[in-house]
Amino acid sequence: MPVRPGQTERVLGAIILVLVIVFVLPSAVLMSGGVAAAILGYFLKDEAERRHAGSELLDLNT
Predict the structure, then answer these.
(1) 11, part of any domain
(2) How many structural domains comprise the chain?
(3) What's the number of CA atoms in the CB half-sphere (13 Å) around residue 12?
(4) What is the domain range of residue 42?
(5) Alpha-carbon distance 12 to 17, whole Å?
(6) What residues contact 52, with CB distance under 8 A and at least 6 apart?
(7) How far apart are the C-alpha atoms of 31 and 33, rounded to whole Å?
(8) What is the sign, positive or negative, of the torsion defined by CA atoms of 33, 35, 36, 38?
(9) Inter-residue contact 44 to 36 (CB < 8 Å)
């Protein structure tokens, strides 16, 4: 069956889009989740240290 002109470009675009969705987006989601967890952990640790200042349990944290 002959290929119509312009059909190859549309298929190539769809293949590139599928590759981006399969490989790039999951990596971006995981990396942004790691960054969000680091920021949240930093601020929650500071808040917990201020809330429990003077506690002997803070000395046990390493």
Answers:
(1) no
(2) 1
(3) 4
(4) 21-49
(5) 9
(6) 58
(7) 5
(8) positive
(9) no
The dihedral built from the CA positions of residue 55, 59, 60 and 62, taken in this order, carries a sign that is positive
Length of the chain: 62
Residue 15 has which token pair?
């293949």
Structure token digits, residue 44 = 């929650």
Does residue 26 sit within a domain? yes
In terms of phi and psi (left: phi > 0; alpha: psi -120 to 50; beta: otherwise), the region of 5 is beta
| Residue 9 belongs to some domain of the structure | no
Residue 1, pLDDT > 80, answer: no
Residue pLDDT, tens place only, 7-59 = 655 688 888 899 999 999 999 999 999 999 999 999 998 888 888 888 877 77
Which tokens in the block code for residue 50? 């201020």
Domain-located, residue 45: yes
Tokens of 41: 């952990």
